Amino acid sequence: MKNASTDLLGVDIGGTNVKIGVIDREYNVREFIKFKTEKDDVDAMLGSICGVIRGLAEKYRFDYIGVGSPGRIEDNRTVIEAGNIAYDNTPCADIIEQKTGLPVYLDNDANCALYGEKFAGAGKNLSDMLVLTIGTGVGGGIMIGRKCYRGHNGRAGELGHFIMDINGEPCSCGLRGCFEQFASVTAFVKAARKAASEHKDSILYDMAQGDPSRIGGRLPFYAMYRGCEVARGVIDEYICHLAAGINSLAKMFQPEMIVLTGGIMNEGPIITQMLAPHFMPFVNCSLSPLQGNAGLIGAALIKREREG
Ligand SMILES: [Zn+2]
How far is CA 77 from CA 91, 182, 204, 284, in A? Predict the structure, then answer.
């Protein structure tokens, strides 16, 4: 039997996982499904998403689907390109509409995180806020006077792509040494794996069972809690870069708050505790209160954002 009032449905396509959630009108996540992103086969990925949605539509009633995706989105319908998912000018909104029979609202995933914070999270009572989504990459959303700032072409908000090292590695965006290359979870994991390979007597190497490729975003923290100096060094350096970028963004935008969300949320308050001593006095930075679901909740709220 279906519920009397309609729920909201959000889809958050990430570089690593796809999350699909049924959200009630108080923005609680009532049902949550997560699966690995089939990033080399977009048709299969969209097929999986639509299969889950059809299943949920048997249990819940919703009038439309909100979808957040990485990458550049044209006309709110088509994903032109995304760093690590093999999109090729994919008309995602049309495909999902055809397969599910429901209207689709599509937006950039970082903007969705901004809408989630704006309506349901840290930004409910704020006028000016930045949201930094720190996961596979670093995304951003800019709220000025409670409006999402998009630039003249709709592409503003790439807060992960200002240059920190002019001689740095080439970035997928075409620049070099971007903030993303220091502050993403991908960069963190890469640094941890390298450090473990170079220190085979470390707790981190031992915890990875002698195979640094097993190190993910969380293991270095577990190793640090066990007293691993190598892990501690990697984390300290990561935090230092992240804080430097946040200081720069705060200086540029002077927001009331910078909200952190994305995969980094898994570590909890230790992140903000370690960041705090590096911040300039005017920086107000906190973790999203939405348990890593800002992008998902925000995707379900794209329609609300567009309708003002
Ligand atoms: Zn870049």
Answer: 6, 31, 44, 35
Per-residue pLDDT tens digits for 208-218: 999 999 999 99
Residue 245 CA to ligand 1 centre (angstroms): 13
CB 263 within 8 A of CB 136: yes
User: Which CATH superfamily is 8-114+294-307 part of?
Assistant: ATPase, nucleotide binding domain (3.30.420.40)
194 Cβ partners below 8 Å, 6+ apart? 212
Between 3.40.50.1000, 3.30.1250.10, 3.40.50.300, 3.30.420.40, what CATH number should domain 124-287 receive?
3.30.420.40
Residue 239 CA to ligand 1 center (angstroms) comes to 19
**Residue 5: per-residue pLDDT:** 73
pTM: 0.91
| Amino acid 28: pLDDT | 93
Q: Which residue ranges in the chain fall short of pLDDT 50?
A: 1-3
The SS3 call for residue 46 is: helix
The alpha carbon of 276 and the centre of ligand 1 are apart by a number of angstroms equal to 25
